[in-house]
Write a structure and sequence with these properties.
Blueprint lengths: L6 H13 L4 H8 L3 H9 L12
Helix pairs in contact: 1-3, 2-3
Length: 55
């Protein structure tokens, strides 16, 4: 069975990858994902929908 990751966890990993404080290898160990997934996610923009008014 394939692992599935929530949008929040994907955004967290992509956010950390954009800061480039840690290497891909370090991030992959921390978040238990393959480095290629982080590299692919870094090249794609993370789109966060705007908050709903009154929410």
């Amino acid at each position: 069975m394939r692992k599935s990751y929530s949008k929040d966890s994907k955004a967290k990993v992509a956010f950390e990858a954009m800061h480039e404080d840690r290497t891909l290898a370090e991030l992959s160990k921390i978040y238990d994902v393959h480095p290629n997934m982080i590299a692919n996610g870094r090249s794609r923009p993370v789109i966060v929908p705007p908050a709903k008014p009154g929410a």
